[in-house]
Amino acid sequence: MDFDSLFNAQLDTLKDEGNYRIFAELERKVGAFPKAKSHDADCPDEVTVWCSNDYLGMGQHPKVVKAMQDAVAACGCGAGGTRNISGTNHQHKLLEAELADLHGKESALLFTSGYVSNWAALSTLGSRLPDAVILSDELNHASMIEGIRHARCQKMIWKHNDPEDLDRKLASLPSNATKIVAFESVYSMDGDICPMQEIVEVAEKHGAMTYLDEVHAVGMYGPRGGGLSEQLGLQDRITLIEGTLGKAFGVVGGYVTGSEALCDFIRSFASGFIFTTALPPAVASAARTSIAHLKTSDVERARQKQQVAKLRMRLDQLGIPHLDNPSHIIPVMIKDPVKCRQLADILMQDYGIYVQPINYPTVPKGTERLRFTPGPLHSDEDIEHLVMALTTLWKQCAIAHAVA
Ligand code: PMP
Fold first, then answer.
1. ipTM of the complex
2. What's the pLDDT tens digit per position in 64-97?
3. SS3 of the chain
4. Which of 21, 34, 143, 347 is least surrounded, with the fewest CB atoms within 10 Å of its CB?
5. Ligand 1 centroid to 54 CA: how many Å?
6. Residues in the ligand 1 pocket, defined by CB under 6 Å
7. What pLDDT, in 10s, does the model give residues 356-373?
């Protein structure tokens, strides 16, 4: 049996549709971010990264780097087991305490990624709670969707960021159902923000639990980087806050926070927590250092906001269409997968500007885009170089045609 022909048939379809993913091979260098060495033959040796989720450059912050190095020197590399069987390191417990404090919750639980935390927590809640119904915002991340699928409980999809639709759907459910409202604070592809206050009020009215993904907001919003829920003073009214250590905190890992009983429940029943090797202690130490730093330092957030505003202003001045949103994410809409990839290739090869094209299935067909995430370490010159390159390419009819 020629299995490869089965694989290749589907890969060829992806390629024909312009949706085949090609990864840029980069080498990040301490102290150089957002510049990185490129290992792609067609590209300049050094490129400027414009699409990183290391939103604040914390992955290279001297304190964070040192914390990881020190912890490797002290503890070695791996955790040595699952959390249950020898893998719970003192560093994990310190980090969980730091996370609980960040979100004003009693407890926190670590996972190996944000994806796993969503999948494990939602599947456990939905499958174990009596008569559970998960009400999911229609644009929720794939990790939440997978968790809900795996829960095999009743699910309802409510219109994106629409508390009225949520209200109607909750009202249609029997009073004895355990209702779980799952949503995000900052949606990463459009960069829009949920109406959290209204959603919380609707959920409370119906006695529903709230499950909030703050992956794109932790470290970034709120006076201590506790996310949008902290900024809005709503932490106490959200049942479970989920986040990542891999974006603004610059490391890797995921977590949930909530009451002691909630975290103990997930700890005790979630297979995605129980049956997998714990995060390396050095990762936990670096993440805790990053969180602690961003709790008291606003320098990174303030400078990042400045650079986001500058890029938006220059795009507006030059007539380059981008989605208007209140977040740090700037999507420039191309609306065609092939043009989107072509534009990204030209930016990378001719200008040393790296922005990954965002195509289906990450976004719906016809909404392909370039997603820029300016950070505190992008200089004004970097911004000018980017907008000049985009302006030049915009004038070329191939791209103008795609955007029209
Ligand atoms: N939730 C959302 C909204 C995300 O965008 C992502 C990843 N892009 C995740 C969860 C998963 O987080 P992680 O990268 O830590 O697995």
1. 0.99
2. 999 999 999 999 999 999 999 999 999 999 999 9
3. CCHHHHHHHHHHHHHHHCCCCCCCCEEECCCCCCEEEECCCCCCCEEEECCCCCCCCHHHCHHHHHHHHHHHHHHCCCCCCEHHHHHCCHHHHHHHHHHHHHCCCCEEEEECCHHHHHHHHHHHHHHHCCCEEEEEECCCCHHHHHHHHHHCCEEEEECCCCHHHHHHHHHCCCCCCEEEEEEECECCCCCCECCHHHHHHHHHHCCCEEEEECCCCCCCCCCCCCCHHHHCCCHHHCCEEEEECCCCCCCCCEEEEECHHHHHHHHHHCHHHHCCECCCHHHHHHHHHHHHHHHHCCHHHHHHHHHHHHHHHHHHHHCCCECCCCCCCEEEECCCHHHHHHHHHHHHHHHCEECCEECCCCCCCCCCEEEECCCCCCCHHHHHHHHHHHHHHHHCHHHHHHHC
4. 21
5. 12
6. 113-115, 118, 141, 143, 184, 188, 213, 215-216, 244, 246, 254
7. 999 888 899 899 999 999
